[in-house]
Amino acid sequence: MSKKLKIGIIGLGTVGTGVVKVLSKYDDIEIVSCAVKNLSKKREVEVPLTDDIYSIVNNPEIDVVVEVAGGVGVLEPLKCAIKNNKHIVTANKELLARHGAELFDLAREYGVSILYEAAVAGGIPIIMPIKTSLKANDFELVAGILNGTTNYILTKMESDKISYEECLARAQELGYAETDPTGDVEGFDAMYKIAILANIVFNKRINLNDIYREGITKITAQDIEIADELGYKIKLIAMAKKEGDELDIRVHPMLVDKKLPISEIKNATNAVFLKGHPVDRVMFTGPGAGEFPTASSVAGDILAIKAEYGKCETILPMMSCNHNIYARQVGIENTKNCYYLSITASNKPGIIGKLGNACAKYGINISYIIQKGTNHDNAKIIVVTEECYEKDMTNMIKELEEDKTAKVENKIRVM
Ligand code: NDP
Ligand code: HSE
């Protein structure tokens, strides 16, 4: 029998517990120790526990460190593990998006692999396919639904008419949400994931500060209802697009035409769409979060290392990271989009004319405009525009709101 692969796990929450369960069928993988924060918490699985991460990363018996704790606090322990020549498997998108450059440089120096299939789109195999089967492509776009929690919330608010708060609580119960769900609902999680994807799709390092990010917390039940009437679903979309020599990378909600397949992605399902040559268009869909789908990806990475372990070259060459040039990123103000505007206006003559004039001044063409009923003082006006520059839209809104007779309650870009 071949030598057992000995692993140490950091974290035994939703994902860690799933990983332990999945690995239990492999006699040739031994979990030496698992680090947790709270040793007295009741656990679903039995493994040797410690509350000292360094006892894992410094343990000479351990070959692979599996990090499923989350957050950037694990950076130093993982650097220590790499310096101790251990391979790393991680589901931690925040860590990779913020500190990937440093970690991958170190891994290259020490000849170890960092595998992270679970960090993007949970159970969907996407990192490995981009780095191997799709390696021959020049990509122009990667886009999709990369956060299960927000897609679950938007789906349930629409289909079951459940409040935002209740949908979020359910997503937390189901193990989809981050320890602090602000990361999900404010778009940070999807931003980390699109940064990781853009990095490998375009072979460039990505500056997180240059990614435009907006979450779903401003989306109301009324926006979802009106979008539905107009033939759209609202989705949190993450995208990275080639614009000449620059990359346009952003995360924000979008109205997605119901005719597009991505509008059909429901609950915690994720979708990743790629457009490149020679493959043309491909879309991957599957479970984007949760115990077992995520454990599937983590276990796959462990098994990939197991298959190569002990060979003369232990680093998986196609999975390593060899680029070090930073991308030039387009600012959101210089992007072109179509827009949905939800406007509350004073219920008096001339308001539509004022809106028309403001749009005309900035060259914004209106596709359609609907008045959604009035009460005594106010009218609700919905506008969908043709494509225009974000900076022109910003200036138009500023002008429209100047005399306080109209307020743009929400501005959502349209796919
Ligand atoms: P949980 O909050 O459920 O679990 C986190 C685990 O890490 C807990 O067991 C916690 O210990 C442990 N932990 C936290 N800090 C420390 C520390 N300093 N020392 C030792 N142990 C620590 O998170 P998830 O399992 O949901 O997520 C883990 C990682 O996987 C994150 O990076 C997340 O982004 C990522 N991920 C999660 C997915 C999901 O669907 N949940 C999907 C894809 C990726 P204790 O139990 O004692 O509190
Ligand atoms: N919180 C994340 C989500 C987990 O909801 O998508 C998967 O990365």
Defining key terms:
415 residues, alpha/beta, Rossmann fold, Dihydrodipicolinate Reductase, domain 2, Alpha-Beta Plaits, 3 domains, 11-stranded mixed beta sheet, 6-stranded parallel beta sheet, 13 helices, 17 strands, 28% strand, elongated, binds NADPH dihydro-nicotinamide-adenine-dinucleotide phosphate, binds L-homoserine
What does this protein structure show overall?
This protein is of the alpha/beta class and 415 residues long. The chain folds into three domains: 5-118 and 291-319, NAD(P)-binding Rossmann-like Domain (Rossmann fold), CATH 3.40.50.720; 127-287, 2-Layer Sandwich (Dihydrodipicolinate Reductase, domain 2); 336-414, 2-Layer Sandwich (Alpha-Beta Plaits). The protein is built from 13 helices and 17 strands. The strands form two sheets. Strands 7, 8, 9, 10, 11, 12, 13, 14, 15, 16 and 17 form an eleven-stranded mixed β-sheet that branches. Strands 3-2-1-4-5-6 form a six-stranded parallel β-sheet, with helices on both faces. Helix 1 (14-23) packs across helix 11 (291-308) and helix 12 packs antiparallel against helix 13 (390-401). It is elongated and about 80 Å long. Bound molecules: NADPH dihydro-nicotinamide-adenine-dinucleotide phosphate and L-homoserine.
